[in-house]
Design goal:
Elements lengths: L1 H25 L4 H16 L13 H27 L2 H4 L5 H13 L6 H18 L14 H26 L2 H23 L8 H27 L2 H8 L2 H13 L4 H19 L1
Helix pairs in contact: 1-3, 1-9, 1-11, 2-3, 2-8, 2-9, 3-7, 3-8, 5-12, 6-12, 7-8, 8-9, 10-12, 11-12
């Protein structure tokens, strides 16, 4: 029961985190600054958890996982926010379902795993569902679409966050969800700050309203990550990722509701088909 509740909270908080990310960038705050501020706020919250941190932090292995996961997480989240800065939430959200296709392709070439009939059918569903969504764009369902920066950033985010999930799971296995959360926050803050310095981007917020939105973003992102850790602790990562695809449908709804994104019915139908395909492929 608790796992089910955690999955529901994770799906809702993840989508609303995307909503606040897009709103902040639309109001003039740089995407990478939003990324840094998110991790900074969560790192401050994490200070309250330090007293109960797991003894495994004295070992070198957990630090290797934490550094690697932090780098992947900060990069993935940065790319995601950059994508949302100019792209539509109802288009970018469903792309996450391609994570399952990427995993299958990697399995063919790296592990020599031949997909089953169900796997091929599921892949077909994901591609078919994405046709409904991508066909609503100016480029349509074509290779031209993948030349768009927002699509490229979203695909990069997909790859980085998929790899990050593996290292989060490794940290949880040798410690606990609280320690994994604290390390995720601190190393995400460090790497997102380094990116800001390298890119020489201002960390200025654009007004008091943006501060309120940032607080909401920090809260939803914190909820998203902590419940993700809880689900990873109690469930196989691939199963969890399949269930998390349900946020695709909510992304389409929020894109229509909050940002007046068009072709709602077509995108919703496509999202449902893609989620079905991703679930079959992963499970």
């Amino acid at each position: 029961m608790y796992v089910t509740v955690a999955i529901i909270i994770r799906i809702i908080s993840n989508t609303f985190s995307n909503v606040f990310q897009k709103t902040l960038t639309a109001n003039g705050t740089a995407a990478l600054a939003v990324n840094f501020y998110t991790y900074l706020g969560l790192s401050i919250v994490s200070l309250f958890f330090l007293a109960g941190i797991h003894p495994s932090v004295s070992g070198y292995k957990i630090w290797i996982y934490a550094v690697t996961g932090g780098l992947l997480g900060a990069s993935g989240n940065g790319f995601l926010i950059k994508a949302l800065e100019t792209g539509e939430l109802s288009v970018l959200g469903p792309i996450n379902s391609y994570k399952a296709v990427a995993a299958m392709i990697a399995g063919i070439f790296l592990a020599h795993e031949i997909p089953s009939v169900a796997g091929i059918f599921a892949t077909g569903l994901i591609i078919w569902g994405s046709y409904f969504i991508f066909n609503s764009t100016e480029e349509g369902f074509s290779l031209k679409l993948f030349k768009r920066k927002d699509i490229q950033y979203r695909i990069a985010a997909l790859i980085f966050t998929a790899l990050e999930a593996v290292f989060i799971k490794k940290i949880i296995l040798i410690s606990d969800i609280k320690t994994a959360f604290v390390l995720w926050c601190f190393f995400g803050m460090i790497f997102s700050f380094l990116v800001l310095k390298i890119k020489k981007i201002s960390i200025r917020l654009s007004g008091s309203k943006s501060f309120q939105q940032l607080v909401a973003l920090i809260a939803t992102t914190g909820l998203m990550q902590y419940t993700t850790n809880y689900v990873f602790k109690n469930m196989n990562v691939s199963y969890a990722l399949a269930l998390f695809q349900l946020s695709t449908i909510l992304s389409v709804i929020c894109g229509w509701k909050f940002f007046d994104e068009k072709d709602f019915k077509k995108k919703l139908a496509g999202a449902v088909i893609m989620v079905t395909g991703a679930a079959i492929l992963i499970l």
